[in-house]
């Protein structure tokens, strides 16, 4: 199984968001265990390969390849190419996405099962893949058919519930958004769009947040302050680090930290450097 370490960085594979081979090399130097390639990266996984080529030991994971965008055969071929070149350093994260973004989206659970069946047939090992999972049914499937679960846009309470469902064996690697800003109003100004767009309009995220006890009022108008504060940890580096560690205390094996840099991108490295000093002793 790929060793992710306790703390990783999560960045979307979009232009302007700083996810480059140079950033991966710096993350490795700082002591992070994994670079998560977010934002539905292409199934050819060329960016994953570039990040691995530029580093020597840090793991790279996808968070996640969308099952509707790239067929299992294509993704399996890419997996084997990368695993042969960089053994034990790549975790293939796959997921179903959401219905609002996919015209052909239907019967999500059946699609997940059939996709995992196809990965099995193509020789992608269970230990080499993880599944995006929020609700109990898919969390349980993640524990049965993959190395474990990669939940997105969650809280330590979700992590606690997910661990109860998964049991003690499978991987649990949630994503956690953070803003390094001590002024709550300024922090929320940056954090709210990262929660609202598009997640609060998507049924799977709405359903998960209601499962965690948030009300319709919390989900309305871009999200209540309570919801935004819970989903995007903000404050100085020590405060943010405590919010990240809360997932580990709740049962996570690894936390993928996303430094929110604002709409359109920006430089996340100063934030990751500041957190490394507190979280990793760098």
UniProtKB/TrEMBL annotation:
One of its GO terms (molecular function) is oxidoreductase activity, acting on paired donors, with incorporation or reduction of molecular oxygen. One of its GO terms (cellular component) is cytosol. It comes from the Bacteria. InterPro entries: Bact_Lucif_Oxidored, Lucif-like_OxRdatse_MSMEG_4141, Luciferase-like_sf. NCBIfam families: F420_MSMEG_4141 (TIGR03620). This is Probable F420-dependent oxidoreductase, MSMEG_4141 family.
